[in-house]
Amino acid sequence: xxxxxxxxxxxxxxxxxxxxxxxxxxxxxxxxxxxxxxxxxxxxxxxxxxxxxxxxxxxxxxxxxxxxxxxxxxxxxxxxxxxxxxxxxxxxxxxxxxxxxxxxxxxxxxxxxxxxxxxxxxxxxxxxxxxxxxxxxxxxxxxxxxxxxxxxxxxxxxxxxxxxxxxxxxxxxxxxxxxxxxxxxxxxxxxxxxxxxxxxxxxxxxxxxxxxxxxxxxxxxxxxxxxxxxxxxxxxxxxxxxxxxxxxxxxxxxxxxxxxxxxxxxxxxxxxxxxxxxxxxxxxxxxxxxxxxxxxxxxxxxxxxxxxxxxxxxxxxxxxxxxxxxxxxxxxxxxxxxxxxxxxxxxxxxxxxxxxxxxxxxxxxxxxxxxxxxxxxxxxxxxxxxxxxxxxxxxxxxxxxxxxxxxxxxxxxxxxxxxxxxxxxxxxxxxxxxxxxxxxxxxxxxxxxxxxxxxxxxxxxxxxxxxxxxxxxxxxxxxxxxxxxxxxxxxxxxxxxxxxxxxxx
Length: 505
What we know:
Elements: H1 2-14, H2 17-35, H3 41-51, H4 57-82, H5 91-102, H6 106-139, H7 144-161, H8 166-180, E1 183-184, E2 191-192, H9 206-224, H10 244-266, H11 272-286, H12 299-322, H13 328-339, H14 346-351, H15 353-374, H16 378-384, H17 389-407, H18 411-429, H19 435-457, H20 469-504
Antiparallel strand pairs: 1-2
Helix pairs in contact: 1-15, 2-4, 2-15, 3-4, 3-9, 3-13, 3-17, 4-5, 4-6, 4-12, 4-13, 4-15, 5-6, 5-12, 6-10, 6-12, 6-15, 7-8, 7-19, 7-20, 8-19, 9-17, 9-18, 10-11, 10-12, 11-12, 13-19
């Protein structure tokens, strides 16, 4: 009953007029950027970080969460109508959704994606509200050694889960850890690697790094690419509503996708991609018409889209309760918390429960808003696909620069923005993931402080890190976070490539 009482208080926060406005802005922007190919929720949240610097923390975080949910919704439109997944999690939706659009059934495909996303988001957010207090009670028993082991789990997770190479993920992580060493030492106050520059006394600005890597780096990468990225847009023919057969074939995949996506999203080495591929495989095995798969089976849209959105709520479980990001967008949201001097984790539930439960309640409100926005406004979202890419990215470049100046009016900060933007471009050029750099900068100094405090308490005894069952389990999970994705990639890469090749044919 405690969870429901706290959630009721959260709704009191979420229903405040300004918070409702922030949620509406978030889901609208999220849907819009989800529709646009190549621009995901992580880039959008990164762009808005400097803009929201002086806003209310609760409203800003509610808007970020709305963008996250909206981006997951909007990605299905691009996948179905353009056969161009905006994010890797939308690849499976394109397999069957675009075939339905080519056959003149784009409307039902979009409808089952939208309704499935609503169902999954509703159930998964309620599961988040019920599970979070239990995890928080467990996490409150952590000591310094356990927190360090948790940071190690976070480092190994982001290194292994993002990108195609664990080695490249670790390299990107160490870049972030190195940047985290700049500035005043958290325990002694001694300035390190400051090079006599006063602006570096407080370290590298997380907001500047996030905007530069995600926005500036992506813009430079697109500008340097010879590909236009333009494809044929399949028009939406007829009504977007589903018939009775579509409903009967969709409701079970919606539920199955939800219960597949949520726990995988909440896992340290999870992610929406694994849940969507697993959901597609399950639906193909259980379908009464397996011959339709590869030719436009509605179950192949309903299940993966539900799994995709359920994983978004699942990702918030480790982020809010443990401060552990398991996706690129979660890493940027972690930067958003830090921007306001907040650290996600068990103590945040105790020190600022109105914010946390207001955020969770606003997810349910945003989910309903998304359903209302997506179905009637399909035509508007489709028109966004016709925006020329050079206009789009030029606007992103201007917005990122102005936002950084607004948050920190400094010539030095603009130089850092350009420098990190070039870093983001070269990371993309050579196939290195971006999120581990941000996570390394945010969590690196915290991991160092917990490590040194644990050694101080134990008087230099390193066995303190394996002295409790919790720290041992967390360290073993960190090892698994590296090993499991390697095994899954080795097994699944051949199947994915075969499915994509069949789809192209």
